[in-house]
Amino acid sequence: MKKEEFFEIKKKYRTKITFSDDLLDDIIGLLMCNYPQNIKKSPFRLGNYQKSQIIKNYQDFLEISSWIDNDKGKNSFRFDLIFDNTFFGSNFNVTSFHTICNGTFSTITFFDLNGLIVGGYNPLGWSNDNKYKSSDCSFIFAYNGDNLKNTTISRAIENGKVIGQNKNYGPWFGEGPDLVVRHNAKQIEMKSKTYNKLFDLEGNYPFRNIEVFK
Questions:
Q1: pTM score, two decimals?
Q2: Which of 70, 86, 90, 182 lies at a 20 to 30 A Cα distance from 157?
């Protein structure tokens, strides 16, 4: 479906089709990212963010939401923690990751590398398709845990192989792979190719925790 067609259908059948805020956000995130339009975004909504061990306060969530909307004045992302290490013990489990996260659009993943936070935003959802997907909305990021103001955000240089999908891998960003967890390893691998390099991060880095929000 083309972007224009979605809005034409919604306009034509506006009295017959009702979209919940969350469903409309997902549709817009999947089909309409970066499309110039005058949609009134739903207000910033906090989910169960208090359960996070990585993001410590409300203001940090406001800042992170602005990365997704790419606008400091529009915070529409809802932070519901859907996956972390403690769900199934202390170790990362790739099968559990896909069982919980597959098919959920607009997720943001955080890895705690002993105080350095690295992660990425996937507007398309995870799957077991064993292929790359394209997106011009995805990005990866890195910041010191106590200072989001100095965050480095890297958007894709080209959008053909932005999100990797494989049942044996956890979150996978870029062809490098720019950021990936393989199998049940408790470490990320980073090699810049699809995205600009984050700091001087290249190689393997163990993580203390992983959290995925929708």
A1: 0.78
A2: 182
